[in-house]
Amino acid sequence: MEGVRPDNPQGMNNLTASNYGGTALVILGGESARGWQSLRDSLDPDVVIGVNGVCFEIDDLDYHLVVENMHLAAGRAAKGEERYRQMMRILSPDHHARRRLYSFLNWKDPVLIDDRIRNVVKIKRMGELGDDYEAQFVRFNFRAYGDGFLAGPLFDHPGALTSERIQFRVGTVGTQAIHLAGILGCAEVHTIGMDFCSLDHWYKYPKYQPDRFRTGRMFTQFAGLQTQHDWLQGARWLGTLEPLFERDGLRWVDHSHGLFEAMGLFCASTSTTPSTSGGASVPARRAHV
């Protein structure tokens, strides 16, 4: 039926302000997240959000977020490619997140969501499937699910991608996890593992490298850090959102000591957390939203 959304906005609306005034800890895949336990213990967060393969290491997440369409990975996994078989484990029933938020695209034929998983909500990103992202962004608020999770403008870097059919937005799953914290009503969101510069993960999961979906031109360096052009674009875009964080009353503090710190983004933290290199602790600036 025309006008029927493919996601479950009511399921997301039911979560709105459920952790009002609380603190969220978002754990991502960058190397810095090896120190997630110390940060969790110091913050004592009200809610813990993990993305993608974080569920391999943390079995009792409050929320597990997967915003990608996993069908390409599923096809490779079906052909026996171990890299993609690892990826597909994130949709398995073998971990016990309290609630899962998975892209509606993973219900398209063939359905990739195991029918034993009950605590799952279908989600979408703004601008998905040709929606007018710019018009949706005008209505965006960190406190509402609205048209879907914050996705960012399309990334355009000629020759960087292996197919002209593949386009993506600069807002990564980390951005969407921060938006989730806002929807939940949290006053503060703390991120770790949002390095935007480490090509490997702190858990067993495929490394970012040239492959069928990325070319060597996708990768670059900034201030001595290994990164990708889309991560650079994403960090710059996130830096422009400071007024929206302030407007919506969401304080964001990043503990990753990666690209955000190197670029001087407002989210860089004054708290002392372990450096990504495993050396001495590195102090940084606190967010001033």
How would you explain this protein's 3D organization?
This protein has 289 residues and is α/β, with parallel strands linked by helices. The chain has one domain (9-263). The protein has helices at residues 9-13, 36-43, 71-78, 82-88, 133-138, 173-183, 229-239, 242-248, 259-263, and strands at 23-27, 47-51, 63-66, 99-103, 120-123, 188-192, 219-222, 225-228, 251-254. The strands form 2 sheets. Strands 5-4-3-2-1-6-9 form a 7-stranded parallel sheet, sandwiched between helices. A two-stranded antiparallel sheet has the order 7-8. Helix 2 (36-43) links the parallel strand 1 (23-27) and strand 2 (47-51). Helix 3 packs across helix 4. The radius of gyration is 18 Å and the shape is globular.
Quick description:
The protein is α/β, with parallel strands linked by helices and 289 residues long.
How far is the first residue's CA from the last residue's CA? 42 Å
Percent of residues in helices: 10-25%
- What is the residue-mean pLDDT, rounded to a whole number? 88
Number of domains: 1
Strand order of the largest sheet: 5-4-3-2-1-6-9
Secondary-structure class: alpha/beta
Largest pleated sheet: 7 strands, parallel
How do the helices and strands follow one another from N- to C-terminus? HEHEEHHEEHHEEEHHEH
What is the overall number of helices?
9
Return Rg in Å. 18 Å
Q: Kindly state the number of beta strands.
A: 9
State the shape. Answer: globular
Proportion in β-strands? 5-15%
Q: List low-confidence stretches.
A: 274-289
